[in-house]
Amino acid sequence: MKQIQLDIRHLNGFVNQEELIAFQKELNVVHPMLFNKKGKGNDFLGWLDLPSGITEEEIVRIENEAQRLRAMSDIVVVIGIGGSYLGARALLEATKHSFSHMLKNQENPEIIYAGHHISQDYLQDLTEVLDQKNYSIIVISKSGTTTEPAIAFRLLKNHLDAKYGREEASKRIVAITDKERGALKKLATEEGYPTYVVPDDVGGRYSVLSPVGLLPVACGGFDIRALIKGAKEMEELIKSTPDMEKNPAAKYAAVRNILYRKGKAVEFMVNYLPSLYYITEWWKQLYGESEGKQSRGILPHGVSFTTDLHSMGQYIQDGLRVIFETTLSVEKTKHKINIPQDDANLDGLNYIAGKDLQYVNKMAELGTTLAHVDGNVPNMHIRIPEITPYYLGQLIYFFEAGCALSGYILDVNPFDQPGVEDYKRNMFALLGKPGFEKETAAIQERIKE
Ligand code: PA5
């Protein structure tokens, strides 16, 4: 199979062959720990088998649901936060037309997101657009109790009821949630919304290959069969061996940890195509929430080059030497635009006239890599033949498995997120949520002037 590759040639001088060979021993421990389900958080490993486990019946149900929503909607609003929305957004933004919302006669509904923050200006602006458009809602919350999506859903459900009447509105809402628990499940049952299940053993940030990611992207016209095919092939490869010469996720986990142990505690995910911005956001969530605990973990950061070379570029080249970079290196773009010849040549660009922009972008990528390596920033590249659903499927599984292996190497549980409860407890105390009376009294005392 043609597949994405991890290219570590620019790690020369930072990670040597002996270190990699020595590290293989650790991979030989964590690989079976993960795939035999013996490690920490092993009740959250359902994602390991999502690509191979999905049935034809489930795919058809999702495709039919998407078709139904597409037929009645100019806009599909996806409500969710964190792992409940970032995967879908990453896949759609990577593949859609950059200005789809400005094109006339679009074949796909526009997918818009809500419930991923608490901005009332955003929601007001959104409802003004929804006043003028036919729309439907996919509301996603595994717990069914997360505050941000619950607020957005309450508001947009009222808007939908007012616009279409309650009966029609309930046909325009699809819920993706736990199979039996949570407020959203209760509401979905009472109102008769079509419902899809987030499996018990799949955490939010590992859920993109479940209905959480598949239904929204199918609504946006994304080929979920190709996505699953790519993920499934990567699943087979990664499961088959811990050998880092054959298993790119194992190699990625090894290299990250070798660098981390040498003081490189910050990983920048680098892209050279703005459409990959949300792939980085998804990756940041996956790695940040999985590894950042017990006062350890590589800090995941993201930059879009060449844009950010004009801002963060200075720091990366010359600031604190704690950084390594992983570049999403895409070989082939969808389009080709050549730089035209210009007789006056006032901008001095004739030396690259006739070259296409991807060639120039690739030279920027290589030049930047070499400069950063010279500046003591180790670099590795994930070579992606092109941005298609098939290769994105490979990439998703590669990153998920790489994260789990890396988390086990760090000796943390990569499937919990105890730290995210702290802000919620304070927010609930400040808002006076029932059940938080003691916390409310304590926090009022703490913030007293
Ligand atoms: O990865 C995670 O577990 C989190 O980011 C969750 O996806 C996020 O907090 C949303 O949770 P829920 O789906 O329960 O609303």
Q: Name the CATH homologous superfamily of the largest domain.
A: Glucose-6-phosphate isomerase like protein, domain 1
CATH C-level category of the largest domain: Alpha Beta
What characterizes the major β-sheet?
5 strands, mixed
What fold name stands as the CATH topology of the largest domain?
Rossmann fold
The total of beta strands comes to 10
Structural class: alpha/beta
- Helix fraction, binned, reads 40-55%
Low-pLDDT stretches are: none
Number of discrete domains: 3
Shape: globular
Which features does this protein show?
449 residues; alpha/beta; Rossmann fold; 5-stranded mixed sheet; binds 5-phosphoarabinonic acid
Descriptive notes:
This protein has 449 residues and is of the alpha/beta class. The protein has 17 helices and ten strands. Strand 7, helix 12 and strand 8 form a beta-alpha-beta unit. Helix 1 packs across helix 11, helix 12 runs parallel beside helix 15 and helix 16 packs across helix 17. The longest helix is centred in the last third of the chain and has 21 residues. It starts with a strand and ends with a helix. The structure holds 5-phosphoarabinonic acid. 5-phosphoarabinonic acid (PA5) binds next to loops.
Outline of the structure:
The protein is α/β, with parallel strands linked by helices and 449 residues long. It has helices at residues 17-35, 50-53, 56-72, 86-95, 120-131, 147-164, 166-171, 183-191, 211-219, 224-240, 248-261, 277-291, 312-318, 357-374, 389-409, 421-431, 437-447, and strands at 5-7, 75-79, 110-114, 135-141, 173-177, 195-197, 266-271, 299-304, 323-332, 379-386. It has 17 helices and 10 strands.
